[in-house]
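Q: Entry one of two.
A:
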Amino acid sequence: GMSGCYSNALLAVSQLKEKYPQRQIIVVDSLCASVGEGFLVAEALRMQANNVMLEDLAHWVDTQKKNVCHWFTVDTFEHLKHGGRVSATSAVMGTLLQIKPLLRVDEQGGLEVMAKPRGGKNAMKAQLQHMMNTLQDPHRILIGHGDNPEAAQNLAFAVLEQIPDAQIYIAEIGPVIGSHT
């Protein structure tokens, strides 16, 4: 929903199948980005190390992708404006009102605005509340950040107050998804 990567991968596979007809290549649209996609890949690699077959890995990723929830906020409207996601007027107003939009990746892999809290603390509270309302596995939580490890750690502490035995993994999002948002 956010890029043409899946379509490009399908095109590449069709070309590779001609050159390597004996090879088995499976493409799965993860509907994820950054840390969520990394989680699916890491889990698939762990399963592969336990001799899970390629078809089963692809099926697992395909069934689990809807269970990965991407909720995030941004500190500034600057990149949203430059990326064409908001107008210049919206960016100015959002900045003046200190709005920190709470976004998520929807079921089609696109971005959706879920709330417009004012201020960083309210944004973190809203993000934590949405996470608690939708969390299916309270033991594994991934927190991604775009060059803001302090905010990620603060969110991790807030999660641990709610779920003391949670396994929290903190990762930096990449520059491509970072500039996208």
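Q: Entry two of two.
A:
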Amino acid sequence: MRHPSRPTAILWDFDGTLVDTRAKNMRVNRRIIEEVTGRQAGDFEVMGSQEIYDRAQRLSVNWREFYRLHFGLSEGETDRAGARWTPYQLLDETPTPPLEGIPETLGMVDGIPQGVVSQNCSSNIRSTLSNHGLLGFFRCIIGYTEVANLQQKPAPDGLLLAIDRLTDFAPGVVIYVGDHETDLRTVANTNRELSARGLPVAVIAVAAAYGMNGCEEDWVDRADFRADHPLEIVEIVNRLAP
């Protein structure tokens, strides 16, 4: 793959790529599911342990599919569950520490505009990053509330919105770092849309193999680059620079 120029922006997934949100997200979903279904969370196999929950998340394309497959929610119930995500995220105080090497990496690439494109809620992302002193590194945060319900990842809408806000689609390469196969699909869909519009922008996928979602080798190998530690992303940026 030939890249037209040095990176114009770096975009990050949030959960499992920047911070470890596994325990918090499971606690929040436990509350949501009990409210929406009227049943105990323990009635659902997927809530049996953190390991089972994490694997189900890893194998689901997005949060809507996760709710449908593992809790049998209808579209309307899924919308209700999604509406409860933000308030419960903001109320829950389960620790969500940055992954090792993330603060240093963000500082070393601070000369390039950075943003977040995630299926978490933007207000929770901002709050978490602010608590860790990391919010200042990001000029743009796109969460699920900034994208239509049926246009969540792997649809390209979130990435396109972030690229527009950060670069105004200036010619160049945008890096997207994620730890889920859906992130790779999102990059592919975004590149198809950019090409269809005739825009001189390419998005490259960096597989965060250091991430918390247990990246599977079959999809990591299909990414443009692999990072086994966040600091390797600095090396990737330097390799792409002319």
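A: Comment on entry two: The radius of gyration is 17 Å. Strands lie at 7-12, 114-117, 140-142, 172-178, 201-208, 225-227.
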